[in-house]
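Hi support team,

I'm filing this because I wasn't sure whether my run with 2-acetamido-2-deoxy-beta-D-glucopyranose finished correctly. The job status page said complete, but I'd like someone to confirm that the output block is well-formed before I use it downstream. Pasting the exact inputs I used:
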Amino acid sequence: MAPLGVSSTSCGPRLAAVLLLAVTAVLGLGAAQLCDEYYDQTCPDVHRIVRRVLKKAHEADVRIYASLTRLHFHDCFVQGCDGSILLDNSSSIVSEKFARPNNNSARGYPVVDAVKAALEEACPGVVSCADILAIAAKISVELSGGPRWRVPLGRRDGTTANITAANNLPSPFDNLTTLQQKFGAVGLDDTDLVALSGAHTFGRVQCQFVTARLYNFSGTNRPDPTLDRGYRAFLALRCPRDGNASALNDLDPTTPDTFDNNYYANIEARRGTLQSDQELLSTPGAATAPIVGRFAGSQKAFFKSFARSMINMGNIQVLTGTQGEIRKNCRVVNGG
Ligand code: HEM
Ligand SMILES: *[C@@H]1O[C@H](CO)[C@@H](O)[C@H](O)[C@H]1NC(C)=O
Ligand SMILES: *[C@@H]1O[C@H](CO)[C@@H](O)[C@H](O)[C@H]1NC(C)=O
Ligand SMILES: *[C@@H]1O[C@H](CO)[C@@H](O)[C@H](O)[C@H]1NC(C)=O
Ligand SMILES: *[C@@H]1O[C@H](CO)[C@@H](O)[C@H](O)[C@H]1NC(C)=O
Ligand SMILES: *[C@@H]1O[C@H](CO)[C@@H](O)[C@H](O)[C@H]1NC(C)=O
Ligand SMILES: *[C@@H]1O[C@H](CO)[C@@H](O)[C@H](O)[C@H]1NC(C)=O
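And here is everything the job wrote out:
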């Protein structure tokens, strides 16, 4: 039994009912905090279990670490990190999976199911789907060579989805002002925007998100002037004008599956893959430009900021304590 009190171990689902309510009442705290020891008593092997399932999935799909990292982002930006992106259509749910930014793009759902199944086996009804996404993102980054951090846990799962909000996720065609607004709306600043965009150091992108830059940027019938000519030629070979819109390319052609700071060097060489990547540096007067320079110059600085920003993103509007539920199946609300 963990000692009661305000020590770092006094956090977990058991205490949620008693201690947390008392503390909340006494101190008038609005929302409970997440903590990294949340499952230490109730599911001590949670990290090992997630890691095992992810490594297994990676044997069949080298892209999976990137895909899972993105799922956490698309979860957190839509009514907070509540696992809403995982819900399928049902009588009460209009699934976010079919929103424009997710449809035929967000992936990794069966691996989340496999993680959930393994956790239900080991500690039934304990680990939320929202926390699974946070842990999976952290382990994915780590296994790809990126930074390690202690991931705050204790999120509960929501019982609703919002496809309207999912349709409003940051778009690769948004200008920098709009990206800053969308990040600002969830409490994330320019450093978070630049650091988190660094997740485009791994994973893939479909031609449909780059062809406008190659042939008809902003309706000019010209390429994006901020795109390096050599890189444009390289992408044009892979994404011909009337080619397969779903064909895949590496987001970071230098080290496609490694989590490193090459993303920023690419941008400095005008080889950002998405318009939204290049804008961080190339928008005239961009406040984000010096941050790109700092991360290009120091992988250590990037890793430190990335870890902090992932924690910031993972804290967006979380449900805690007795809010929401712990879903039994990540695809459906309990009793739904
Ligand atoms: C700044 C705003 C962002 C925009 C506009 C954006 C847009 C995109 C787009 C268009 C793709 C390609 C999807 C496809 O071709 O199907 C993509 C992939 C990806 N994004 Fe982002 N993204 C942003 C921020 C982030 C953040 C904050 C993260 C995570 C921290 C992230 C992680 C990823 C990863 C890992 C991939 C590759 C996924 C895979 O291979 O399955 N992105 N993003
Ligand atoms: C889920 O519902 C949405 C919105 O009603 C619809 O566009 C989509 O096709 C449905 N998907 C499935 C698999 O039923
Ligand atoms: C999602 O993609 C499918 C093709 O796989 C398409 O038929 C469907 O119309 C798309 N749904 C929405 C809501 O755009
Ligand atoms: C869904 O998201 C939209 C856009 O963020 C918001 O205006 C709307 O109030 C949300 N709907 C619900 C039911 O929360
Ligand atoms: C950015 O995009 C928004 C929305 O499309 C637009 O209203 C705004 O004028 C654009 N800002 C700049 C600086 O281009
Ligand atoms: C270029 O884009 C503009 C605006 O999006 C569009 O009206 C035009 O038809 C496109 N040109 C070609 C050749 O596809
Ligand atoms: C387009 O590319 C996707 C992704 O590589 C592939 O699955 C699909 O079969 C291709 N479609 C055609 C018509 O070649």
